[in-house]
Amino acid sequence: MADLIKLEPLFHNKIWGGRRLASEYGYQIPDGPVGECWAISAHPAGDCPVTAGPGAGGTLSELWDARPELFGGEAGKPGSAPGGDRFPLLVKIIDADGDLSIQVHPDDAYAAEHENGSLGKRECWYVLDCEPGATIVVGQRAHNREEFAQLVEEGRWSDLLNEMPIHKGDFFQIDAGTVHAIKAGTLILETQQSSDVTYRVYDYDRVQDDGTKRELHLAQSLDVIDYAAQAPASGAITAAETDGVTELEKNSNYTVDLVRVDGEKTLAQPWSFMCLSVIEGAGTICGEPVEKGAHLLAPCGCGDLALAGEMALITSHL
Ligand code: ZN
Description:
Elements: E1 5-7, E2 10-18, H1 20-23, E3 34-40, E4 42-43, E5 46-47, E6 50-52, H2 60-66, E7 89-96, E8 102-104, H3 108-114, E9 123-130, E10 135-140, H4 145-153, H5 157-160, E11 161-165, E12 171-174, E13 180-182, E14 186-193, E15 199-202, H6 218-224, E16 241-242, E17 245-250, E18 255-267, E19 273-285, E20 288-291, E21 295-299, E22 305-317
Antiparallel strand pairs: 1-6, 1-21, 2-3, 3-7, 4-5, 7-14, 8-15, 9-12, 9-14, 10-11, 10-13, 16-17, 17-18, 18-22, 19-20, 19-21, 19-22
The chain binds zinc ion (ZN).
């Protein structure tokens, strides 16, 4: 059986970040407000070191280029794995102590043309924890570009934005073109396309330590917003759990599952690769001890994964 690939998370300071990535997950994080843990990433803005398994000592992007067969490609042929020239997913944990900006992401076509060949960004959120009364913004109410621009101009945010209460265990799929914001008091596991392109519509007129405001991108936002998208009424999961597995989302970019382990469980791994993040409890994966906050990649052809313990995981694959 091929070895599992173990990754070291990378951290990003954010104006809205907090300290829960240290206090809740035990990560060694930099000083100051830390908003994001990039747990499984080969993106140039955060390329995770591989600490054990194939490619140990290098980074995930180096492993992707050097060993395409581990990701469903052909040995010796870089770029042959599904996903092509780059590892296509990015798994983050987000600690929102303050509100994230009101934002929207482009799709692949717009990003390729306007953002130097970047991928677009489809993302999804599993709510790991939230404070009582926490809310989230998913979707907006303007019917077209002109109406959106006018409501922004007039600062009528509550008329414009679809904001709703959230609860631990909620799940939201955010397609490209959907206006959204994670709000204060929320811990989220995000699975997304490997992209870092964000267009900010509004940042609450916040001022950074250096006295400046973060850049807004209203023109690009107006270009990419999907004015016909239906906003969800809640993040309650409606899919049924089968043998401990709940399919949270399946689209052309990723499939994301919630996996509960209570004792022993065998998880099939027939995919080109599988991302695994332990979000609760502790146990073992193929004999390797893991606990909340651990992130692993199961390579192509590794066979069934033997899980044991009392834990919950979020998994993803293409
Ligand atoms: Zn986003």
